[in-house]
Design a protein that fits this description.
The protein is an alpha/beta fold. It has a single domain, classed as TIM Barrel (Alpha-Beta Barrel). It has a six-stranded parallel beta sheet. Helix 4 crosses helix 5. The longest helix is centred in the middle third of the chain and has 18 residues. Bound molecules: zinc ion (ZN). Zinc ion (ZN) binds next to strand 1.
Length: about 270
């Protein structure tokens, strides 16, 4: 399974002709969890905001009374803003035995509730971490069983089984846990995938602030991007799993005090 994911990641990297990271280093192999689709997006120096952002090029997108961007659908009708003035932090690809506890402790210290988009096979490996996420009052989001970037192109039955298997693993770890959201790996949404997600009474969850932390840029690059780009109502994409998250964790020490001074943070 791990080897096939690795092969998939390598194939995707070759397809887009962009490196999946520092492949020259033996201890830094291509990261199979990488959100491959984001490689085709602008570097984090350019903000990939929603078309509904109140920018001069889109003057019709006026802020709501709360000052938040008017809610607008993301790809294929997915949710990409919170719908209020609150900002949401989302952490993908865990639970990870090293990084999830560190992120949880930091969130606890800053009294921040977030949303964790978890991968089924990692849930099965580390069920206790799901308990800690729930106990701390964070929101759970299904991020597929196996981080299948192409899940949305598979048959509705296959998609449904993948999501159901992941939910079952979460519920096995924490009976009665609420799983209101689903996030497609890589943001590679399809109309079919979104339909299945809604049939399972989950909300397809996208984002609109992406510092591309999975590419492991320096912490200061992650934090400066998030601090500069995050506005009211935004959903920020970060990672607590899928590789060495040292830089994300360091960035959070700077990001959390900054955001909590300026925004209400919501677990969605
Ligand atoms: Zn992911």
């Amino acid at each position: 399974m791990a080897q096939s994911r690795l092969n998939l990641a390598v194939a995707i990297c070759a397809a887009v002709l962009i490196s999946c990271g520092p492949t020259g280093s033996a201890d830094a192999p291509p990261d199979p969890w990488n959100e491959a689709v984001a490689k085709t997006k602008p570097r984090p120096s350019k903000r990939a905001r929603t078309s509904a952002s109140p920018t001069p090029s889109n003057p019709s997108a006026s802020p709501t009374a709360s000052g938040a961007p008017a809610p607008s659908p993301g790809p294929h009708g997915s949710q990409q803003v919170t719908g209020s003035s609150a900002v949401a932090l989302t952490f993908d690809d865990g639970p990870d035995p090293t990084w999830t506890p560190k992120v949880l402790a930091l969130l606890r210290k800053h009294k921040v509730k977030a949303t964790f988009c978890v991968v089924g096979i990692e849930v099965k490996r580390h069920p206790k971490l799901i308990g800690e996420i729930v106990r701390d009052g964070h929101t759970l989001c299904n991020h597929t069983w196996d981080h299948d970037l192409r899940l949305g192109k598979r048959s509705p039955g296959h998609i449904k089984a993948n999501l159901a298997r992941t939910n079952a693993a979460i519920l096995s770890a924490v009976p009665g846990a609420q799983i209101p959201y689903f996030r497609q790996p890589g943001g590679m949404w399809t109309k079919r995938g979104v339909r299945v997600v809604r049939e399972l009474d989950m909300v397809p969850l996208h984002w609109n602030v992406d510092p591309r932390d999975w590419t492991k840029p320096p912490a200061r690059q992650i934090s400066s991007f998030v601090k500069r780009e995050t506005k009211k109502g935004d959903i920020v994409l970060l990672h607590d799993g899928g590789g060495n998250r040292t830089q994300t964790y360091r960035a959070l020490h700077d990001v959390l005090p900054h955001l909590t001074r300026r925004f209400q943070l919501t677990p969605l």
